[in-house]
Specification:
mainly alpha, 5-stranded parallel beta sheet, two-stranded antiparallel sheet, 27 helices, 54% helix, globular
Length: 696
């Protein structure tokens, strides 16, 4: 701890910065003023210096003309040009690391790699990213140390919290340095080997460097989380109270445990392209990750968020989901993003709190007023440079199309040139139309995920199968499997059947390794399903879903049990909001356990242990399959919406006629922190009916 205290004290001193050549003065971007009310009482937005919507495309100061004269200087060529910035960055990092021995050793080893690496350029970008991560790590540590204006007690608490991180970091960097020494040995081997072996060693070196990046990212994430907590503690209680006026989805952020990231070693090329876009100052302001259902958009978005958060680049994130009311509501997106930014950045918070003091209901206003008042104006005035992520925009359930969000971004995004937006979504008509808007299209980079080379996707899916299947059976004593398991042929068969869909791979793994079954038997079942050849791989995923259903319920003795199963599944896939086991049992008047009825569907449904927590589907391709007669061809499992929507409505009406049953049902809900039951005694039957339908 003494070592940490000395290091931390040095960090709290002002950081010496490299002198930059002053940039030529630019015309400032017009500032959006607060939305005044028009004659009809409707709030409208005005932009200073922006007399008409057609002129909005000119709000950013123009770039210097291509032919303008600039000071000329000699430029390095070849490897020197590529490695020059890395050497410079390492030189600065080494100077900064002098206060912390383990970090200095790591930087020194990296310098050795660079100086002996100029003939092996394939790892240039890998090393450059490690350098950036080290620099970001030092910046994060210093930002946490220089938060300033803290009381002595708070500073002491800060020391205790950060102390463990920094002391552990010393041990981590020692491990990192050992890996770098291994990398140096690899380089020496590369010099004396033929081209093929050298290529293999270059790949091994890249793997080592990726390991280092991952370890550093884990620690940066801890530090950023610590800084975020510290910033929240510094927030004035009055500011916090006012911020709570903003409606916000609590589990929409990437930090929620409900989101899964990519398996290490997969989607590497895609993630590097996204990272490069986010880090390049001159890149376009919007990035659309476009892909079919099940292609892995959300896991990629989660992985990108984790990396950007660790580096301090991520401002806010919103992961849409049609399984949750607040995360499928377009009107929750802008207030939630604003709330997250306000919690993380004091300068932004000051602007939002000021707005909320003047208009406490701004979070319930029109989408246009939300965007201008809660995001655009505060971002302009705080001069914040950051990345904002919106995932699965196509999952919002609204009468307004998702393209409304994109249309608004098209109008205002030029006023915040320091902010980048990363958006994912299926290429559905409303979203395609939104990105084709003449103001947004020139500012958007589009990455079509299903156009990635088949070989690259198959390699990732193959790695996923090998890793996840082996992990699942390692600790089991009730299985007798040949080694290695699964075999190379079996992995290749499963990969082929996946047809590039990660949701197929994830569902297949869950089906194979369920604790109640023998993995090899389940794997053999999947080997017999047909390969996919239809649009978006539907044949393959449909066959997989049918195998899951048939394997679990093919031997039920009579149609009555199938009818009960269909009713339960209908209440899960057709309800507007997810229902819990207790709610389903009450709604359908089912006496036996819902858990028992669904115990064989863990591959496609998330079934929580607690009876009052909602059951959700892992992926929306399952409801799409089971409610489509041309895809779910077995009548034992097909859920016909035209039949089951009225059936569920009848059950609702039955409950409404029994006041005690309705009270029991509503007792499971909390709305805005208030229990519903005390309100019931004041409601008439027709009002109670309306309230019930709101929940379904």
């Amino acid at each position: 701890m003494k070592r940490f205290t000395r290091f931390y004290a040095k960090l709290r001193k002002p950081r010496s910065k490299k002198q930059k050549t002053p940039a030529p003065p630019q015309e400032p971007s017009p500032v959006i003023s607060s939305p005044p009310a028009d004659a009809s009482g409707t709030a409208t937005s005005t932009i200073e210096g922006d007399p008409s919507p057609d002129s909005r495309s000119d709000v950013i100061a123009p770039e210097p003309a291509a032919g303008s004269q600039q000071p000329q200087e000699s430029k390095p060529t070849g490897p020197q040009r590529a490695l020059g910035p890395i050497k410079l960055g390492l030189g600065l990092a080494k100077e900064a690391a002098a206060v912390f021995g383990p970090l200095q050793s790591v930087v020194g080893s990296l310098l050795f790699l660079v100086e002996h690496h100029e003939k092996w350029m394939s790892n240039k970008e890998d090393i450059k990213r490690v350098v950036k991560r080290l620099d970001s790590l030092m910046a994060s540590l210093q930002d946490g140390a220089n938060n300033g204006n803290t009381s002595e007690d708070l500073h002491r608490q800060e020391l205790q919290e950060c102390g463990h991180i920094i002391c552990d970091l010393g041990d981590l960097l020692t491990i990192v340095n050992r890996k770098l020494e291994m990398a140096a040995q690899t380089l020496e081997a590369m010099k004396s080997k033929n081209y093929l072996t050298a290529s293999e060693n270059a790949k091994a070196l890249s793997g080592l460097i990726e390991d280092i990046r991952g370890m550093l990212q884990d620690y940066q994430t801890k530090i950023q989380g610590n800084i975020l907590s510290h910033t929240s503690r510094l927030m004035e209680s009055e500011d916090l109270r006012i911020l709570q006026l903003l409606p916000h989805a609590l589990k929409a952020s990437h930090r929620s445990v409900t989101h899964k990231s990519c398996l290490k070693g997969t989607r590497v090329d895609v993630l590097e392209k996204i990272e490069a876009w986010s880090e390049e100052p001159s890149s376009l302001s919007v990035y659309w990750l476009n892909g079919h259902a099940g292609s892995g958009k959300s896991t990629i978005a989660q992985s990108f968020c984790e990396r950007a958060f660790a580096d301090g680049h991520l401002g806010a994130s919103f992961f849409c989901s049609r399984d949750y009311t607040d995360r499928s509501d377009l009107r929750m997106i802008f207030p939630t993003l604003s709330y997250q930014l306000a919690c993380a950045f004091p300068a932004f918070r000051e602007q939002v709190v000021s707005t909320l003091r003047k208009d406490p209901d701004i979070g319930h206003n029109s989408l246009s007023n939300q965007l201008t008042s809660l995001l655009i104006i505060p971002l302009q005035k705080s001069k914040l440079s950051t990345v904002i992520v919106i995932d699965a925009l196509d999952e919002c359930k609204e009468t307004e199309p998702a393209s409304v969000i994109l249309s608004l971004l098209a109008r205002y995004i030029r006023h915040i040139p320091l902010v980048k937006f990363f958006v994912t979504g299926r290429p559905e008509p409303p979203i395609r139309e939104g990105f084709r808007l003449k103001l947004l299209e020139p500012l958007t980079t589009i990455f079509v995920l299903h156009n990635v080379e088949v070989e690259s996707v198959d390699r990732d899916i193959e790695l996923f199968f090998r890793t996840r299947l082996l992990e699942a059976v390692l600790g089991r004593s009730d299985v007798d499997l040949s080694i290695p398991w699964p075999s190379d042929d079996e992995v290749k068969i499963l990969t082929t059947k996946s047809s590039g869909l990660f949701i197929f791979a994830a569902t297949a793994v869950s089906f194979i390794v369920h604790p109640a079954n023998q993995p090899q038997e389940r794997l053999s079942l999947l080997k017999r399903i047909p390969n996919s050849s239809l649009f978006e791989g539907q044949l393959g995923i449909d066959s997989l879903y049918f195998t899951v259903l048939k394997n679990g319920y093919a031997d039920m003795p009579d149609n009555g049990e199938y009818a009960v199963l269909r009713s339960i599944l209908a209440s899960i896939v057709l309800a507007f909001n997810p229902l819990s086991k207790a709610m389903i049992a009450s709604l359908l008047h089912i006496e036996h356990s819902i858990t028992s009825a669904l115990r064989l569907l863990h591959a496609v449904l998330h079934i929580p242990q607690l009876d009052n927590e909602p059951i959700t589907v892992y992926h929306k391709s399952f409801p799409d399959f089971i409610t489509c007669e041309s895809r779910c061809v077995d009548p034992r499992f097909f859920i016909d919406p035209a039949v089951y929507h009225p059936m569920l409505a009848v059950h609702c009406l039955e409950i409404m006629t029994e006041r005690s049953a309705l009270e029991e049902y509503l007792n499971m809900h909390v709305v805005s922190g208030l229990i519903i039951l005390p309100i019931l005694q004041h409601l008439q039957p027709c009002q109670m009916s309306g309230l019930f339908f709101i929940f379904l």
